[in-house]
Design a protein that fits this description.
It is a single chain. The protein is an alpha/beta fold. Helices cover 57% and strands 10% of the residues. It is built from eleven helices and five strands. It has a five-stranded parallel β-sheet, with helices on both faces. Helix 4 links the parallel strand 2 and strand 3. Helix 8 packs antiparallel against helix 11.
Length: 240
């Protein structure tokens, strides 16, 4: 029984992706990059994407998305993919889903097959249930436009300190300064969201604030032509 639960969690983890960026353009850019990887072909136009038979899109002009809208949305996704390897459900403004709607989605994630993928597009993750957040791969955009596809950030956040040091050593060696600054900005956006969430929950947010300061110092150092490796190393050590 335990083994079955563990296996199912792995499947759910790869089924859902949460894209977090302040701007609509930023969210759509990351979405197109991820869809291109999923479909193994270039997908660069959002309007054309919505014309694909295996793409299902939910959005609203209202202040919330309720359980009725979600149920209608998932009913259209009970079939096997028509043209692509996967059928994809995209929920724009997923941060205005009601708790009831999110719980209905959670049940859908658990019951869906491996040929179904979901993308939740949000401006901030604070309104999503923890049970949703724990089941999704997260991609963060920069806080000020020009979204940065941040698979490196997702990998970094899952590492322990030793692996992070090895990771940033390779990054400092292989990547240009502009790339590293983009990476750090995306990492900064993540911790700012975490800080806001902690404040909303009545916590001090002190640890997140310390990390935010360390990342900001690293960005300044990288822009100031300090050794890339040294700046990143110092940031990781100070984050512990």
């Amino acid at each position: 029984m335990v083994v079955t639960r563990q296996c199912k969690c792995v499947i759910i983890w790869y089924m859902m992706h949460i894209i977090i960026a302040e701007t609509k353009e930023g969210r759509e850019r990351i979405l197109l990059e991820q869809i291109s990887k999923l479909f193994e072909r270039e997908v660069s136009d959002f309007i054309e994407l919505l014309k694909v038979p295996d793409i299902h899109y939910l959005t609203t002009t209202q202040n919330s998305l309720g359980i009725d809208e979600v149920k209608k949305f998932v009913q259209a996704m009970v079939y096997q993919p028509f043209e692509e390897k996967y059928q994809v459900g995209i929920i724009d403004k997923a941060d205005i889903l009601t708790p009831e709607a999110q719980n209905a989605l959670l049940k859908t994630f658990e019951d869906s097959n491996e040929k179904t993928m979901f993308f939740l597009l949000v401006s901030r993750e604070g309104n999503l249930l923890d049970t949703i957040l724990s089941r999704g791969s997260k991609y963060y955009g920069q806080s000020v436009g020009n979204a940065f596809e941040s698979e490196d950030v997702t990998k970094f956040l899952e590492m322990d300190t030793v692996k992070r040091l090895s990771f940033v050593e390779k990054m400092g060696k292989d990547k240009e300064r502009d790339y590293i600054v983009n990476f750090l900005n995306a990492l900064l956006a993540y911790y700012k969201y975490e800080f806001e969430k902690e404040i909303e929950e009545g916590k001090s947010g002190e640890e997140s604030m310390i990390v935010i300061q360390e990342i900001q110092e690293a960005i300044g150092a990288i822009k100031g032509n300090v050794s890339k490796k040294l700046a990143l190393y110092n940031m990781v050590v100070q984050m512990v």
